[in-house]
Amino acid sequence: MVVPTFGQYVWASKLLSSFFNVRRNIPRALRDSNYGRQWGNLLTLGTIHLSPREHPMTEKFMDYLRRTYPAAASNVLFRMHDDQDVAMEYVMSHLDEERTWAVIDLSQLHDSSDEHNADKGGSFTIRLNYTTVPNTALVENYVASGLSTRYQRYFLSGYLTLQRTLNEFVMSESGCHAANSMDPFYTMPMPTAAYDQNVFFLHVGYLLGLVLTMAFLYPTSRLIQSLVEERETRMKETLLILGVRPWAHTTSWVVTSAMSFVIITFFMTIVLQHIMLHTAFALVWFWLATFGMASMAFCFFLASFFSKAKLAAVVGPMALFASLLPRFVFFGTNRYEAIGAKYAASILPGTALAFGADVVGDYEYGEQSVGDHFWSGDYSFGTSVFFLIFDTIFYMVLAWYTEQVIPREYGAAAKPWYFPVMWCFPRVFSSYKTVADGDDDLSVASLAKTGKGEEGEW
User: Fold this and answer.
1) Helix, strand or coil for residue 48?
2) How confident is the model at residue 33 (pLDDT cuts 50, 70, 90)?
3) What phi and psi values does residue 197 have, to the nearest 5 degrees?
4) Among 78, 115, 261, 301, which lies 20 to 30 A Cα-Cα from 65?
5) How far apart are CA 318 and CA 156, in angstroms?
């Protein structure tokens, strides 16, 4: 980054201040904030205090400014002081009267024309208002959260401009060829992080799964209410009487519900693309679509336990939200810890989504695409997608099973809880039924022969 020259900085300040009056047009709350203070020197060019007054380098520095930047030097107010302490005392006692750009002390800068001090070199001191430059009193500056933008204050406050000007002056006095003020002067912020990070996911990434689950609560409530209303109004039995096949009835519910959740996930993905800047649109949509299918199957399963639609509409979203809560049991773990317990908890669709959201948040925090690390880690993003697909099949099977075994007031009689075993071993159960039926006939015949079949004795 190129540091502006003394003339460029003064010209930019005059240009900005000509547009509006800082004290009149900028509210004091903004002017006194950290954001407003970093623009203070640029919007209101202050006084430069030089010391010591009688030092030869001070006079030479003023001559250098008038020679090199005549227009800029004439637009800046300079004050001379006997030493640095007097200059600081004057600045602190006139805080309300005038703004100070900087206090420059050249007492340690030796005159190169002096034969006795020509080889001693020297140093200079630049002091600025602490509100216009970064705070250097910090014991530790964390750079892992990305590149700090506080370095910009060194540009906006004019500190780097003054440092460049003094460097050019010193080099011109020493006869250095690089003293040309038109040569670019480059600088860069330090320390610089090895990679960038999105701090948004550092602070709210753990809430991503919670927010996504809450977005499905209302669609879940509507679906489970519609399912139970059909049972409550006997509409399903009516359709079956009219000749609708059971498989056709179930397929229609699955297709229409899936279309609703797919459309919802499409619009959710559009919104999420504003924060998930590095994850592909198709991948986010597929991930949310699998959760939508798992939520749909979860609704089918829950609907089989209810006979009142209003009660189901209230309990259904609560159950889906409760399926997210086991994720917070593993709040302090990473993707390499408690894997078996996480697999077991992922049978609940909300928890499987939340674990996947944590992985997405980790990679978005590091500004990387989760698609490039689909199976990275013991519990990866691919693991979350797998369990969401598994949950869809699992809860659809459970919904079909509970629909068969839970007794209803109308319609077909409930099957025994072990009826899948009857399907697997049909010969065993058919032989058992034949023997049982023969025993019943034998019992009736034997009772008839004994004469106990008379009327009034049964």
Assistant:
1) strand
2) low
3) -140, 150
4) 115
5) 53
β-pair partners for 122: 109
pLDDT of residue 40: 74
User: Could you read off the pLDDT of 380-430 as tens digits, one per residue?
Assistant: 999 999 999 999 999 999 999 988 888 776 656 577 877 777 777 666 666
167 lies in the same domain as 204: no
Is 83 within the bounds of a domain?
yes
- 350 domain residue, yes or no: yes
Q: Do residues 10 and 75 make contact, with C-beta atoms less than 8 angstroms apart?
A: yes
Residue 422 located in a structural domain: no
Q: Are residues 142 and 73 in the same domain?
A: yes
pLDDT (mean) for 260-283: 92
Say yes or no: 127 and 227 in one domain: no
CA angle 249, 254, 259 (to 5 degrees): 130
Query: pLDDT higher for 413 or 15?
Result: 15
d(CA 15, CA 42): 10
The torsion region of residue 198 among left (phi > 0), alpha (psi -120 to 50) and beta comes to: beta
